[in-house]
Design a protein that fits this description.
- The protein is α/β, with parallel strands linked by helices.
- The chain is built from eight helices and 17 strands.
- The strands form four sheets. It has a six-stranded antiparallel beta barrel with strand order 12-15-14-13-16-17. Strands 3-2-1-4-7 form a five-stranded parallel β-sheet, sandwiched between helices. A four-stranded mixed β-sheet has the order 9-8-11-10, with no helix packed on it.
- The chain is globular and about 65 Å long.
- This is tRNA-specific 2-thiouridylase MnmA.
- It is found in: Cytoplasm.
- Its EC number is 2.8.1.13.
C-alpha cells in the first residue's frame, strides 16, 4: 500500500514509520507544522510540536530511507483545535485538545489530503490496536495499558479508521524504544510529550487569560450559597480541582473544598466537599460508533471518562440521542467536555464500541 506516515518527531511515530516501511509499504513521511508563528513553540522536550521536532522527524525519515515533507496545517489547527479549546473553557467545559487534534487534523484534514494524493492509509505512532475485516474496523486497547491511547482515538469514524494504521499497539513503550535503538534512530531516548503543545510556557490558565481576558466572579459554597471567594476568570477552573481556589477561610467542617460546577453565564464557580463530586450517571452527546453501527442497547460495558482515567463497569443505554452510562460505583470529578468512551471487555483485549462528549449536567447534589 501507499502509506503516509505522520511523523511528530517523537520515538513512537518514527518506529511506526519504520515498521510500515519494513512491512513493504510505499511510505512517505510528513511532519505537520501547526504553529502560525513557529517562535511560539516551546523548545526542548516538554511537549510535542517543538521546533526541534521537525528536525528530529526529518533525521528519522533519512535513517529509515523514506521521502519526507512538511505540511503547513497552522490555520486549520488554530481554527479546529486552539479556538475550540478556548471556546470550550469559556463555556465552562474541560476539552481534550489531543482528542480534537486526532478528530479534526490527523484523521480529517491530513487523511483527506492524503487520500486526494493517492495514499491508501495514514500510519501514526498511537498506542492502540486496529484491525479491519471486510471493511469493518475493530479498535482495541494497546497491550501496554499504561500507554494506551484508544481513548483519544475513539472519536474517529469507521471510515477514518478504515484508512488508519497503528503498528505499535502490540508492543510496550520499552519495546518501542528498543526497536528505535536497534535501527539507529536518534529519538530512541527522547522523552515523551505531556504538555499542551500550543501553550508554550505550560501555563494553561495564563494562556486562557490572554485569550479571554480577566473577568472577575464569585466562588460560592454550593451547600450554603455563601460567597467564599473571588476569581479572575471561571475558565481557569475545572471540575474536581482543589488547588488555587483562593478561598478566604477554611470550611466549617475543616475539610478541603473542590470545584463542583462552573457556571459560565453568571461566571460563578461552585465548590463543595469531595463526596459531592460523586456521580453514578453520566450523559453524553454526539456519539460516534467505531464500526459505524449503533450497538443494541442496553449493554454491559466498561467506560472511561478521561484520558488517564480507570475503566469503570457500567450499563450503557440510549435516551433519545444521548448516551447514558449508569455506573456500578460512583465516579468522582466528571467534567463536561471530556469524552465518554465505551469498551467491551473480551479475552483478546478491550474493544472500543464508541465515544460521545460528556454533557454539562447541573451542579452535583450534596450528600
Amino acid at each position: 500500500m501507499k502509506v503516509l506516515a505522520a511523523m511528530s518527531g517523537g520515538v513512537d511515530s518514527a518506529v511506526a514509520a519504520a515498521f510500515a516501511a519494513e512491512a513493504g509499504h510505499d511510505v512517505t513521511g510528513v511532519h505537520l507544522a501547526l504553529a502560525r508563528n513557529p517562535q511560539t513553540h516551546r523548545t526542548g522536550a516538554r511537549g510535542c510540536c517543538t521546533k526541534e521536532d521537525a528536525h528530529d522527524a526529518r533525521r528519522a525519515a533519512d535513517v529509515i530511507g523514506i521521502p519526507f515533507y512538511v505540511w503547513d496545517m497552522a490555520e486549520r489547527f488554530h481554527e479546529d483545535v486552539i479556538e475550540d479549546f478556548v471556546a470550550e473553557y469559556a463555556a465552562g467545559r474541560t476539552p481534550n485538545p489531543c482528542l480534537r487534534c486526532n478528530e479534526k487534523i490527523k484523521f480529517t484534514a491530513v487523511l483527506d489530503r492524503a487520500r486526494a494524493l493517492g495514499f491508501d492509509a495514514v500510519v501514526t505512532g498511537h498506542h492502540a490496536r486496529l484491525s479491519t475485516v471486510d471493511g469493518v474496523p475493530t479498535l482495541r486497547r494497546s497491550v501496554d495499558f499504561g500507554k494506551d491511547q484508544s481513548y483519544v482515538l475513539a472519536v474517529c469514524t469507521s471510515e477514518q479508521l478504515r484508512h488508519a494504521m497503528f503498528p505499535l499497539g502490540g508492543i510496550t513503550k520499552d519495546e518501542v524504544r528498543q526497536q528505535a535503538a536497534d535501527r539507529g534512530l536518534a529519538v530512541a531516548d527522547k522523552p515523551d510529550s505531556h504538555d499542551i503543545c500550543f501553550v508554550s510556557d505550560g501555563d494553561t490558565a495564563g494562556f486562557l487569560r490572554r485569550a479571554l481576558g480577566e473577568r472577575s466572579g464569585e466562588i460560592v459554597d454550593a451547600a450554603s450559597g455563601e460567597v467564599v471567594g473571588e476569581h479572575d476568570g471561571a475558565y481557569a477552573f475545572t471540575v474536581g480541582q482543589r488547588k488555587g481556589l483562593k478561598i478566604g477561610r477554611p470550611a466549617a467542617d475543616g475539610k478541603p473544598r473542590y470545584v463542583l460546577d462552573i457556571e459560565p453565564v453568571s461566571n460563578t464557580v461552585h465548590i463543595g466537599p469531595a463526596d459531592a463530586l460523586d456521580v453514578t450517571e453520566v450523559r453524553a452527546e454526539r456519539p460516534v460508533w467505531t464500526d459505524g453501527v449503533q450497538p443494541s442497547f442496553p449493554v454491559r460495558a466498561q467506560v472511561q471518562l478521561r484520558a488517564h482515567g480507570e475503566p469503570m463497569d457500567a450499563t450503557v443505554s440510549l435516551d433519545g440521542d444521548q448516551v447514558v452510562a449508569t455506573l456500578d460505583s460512583p465516579a468522582r470529578g466528571v467534567a463536561a467536555g471530556q469524552a465518554l468512551v465505551v469498551y467491551r471487555p473480551d479475552a483478546a483485549g478491550d474493544v472500543v464500541l464508541g465515544s460521545a462528549t460528556i454533557m454539562r449536567s447541573g451542579q452535583p447534589a450534596l450528600h
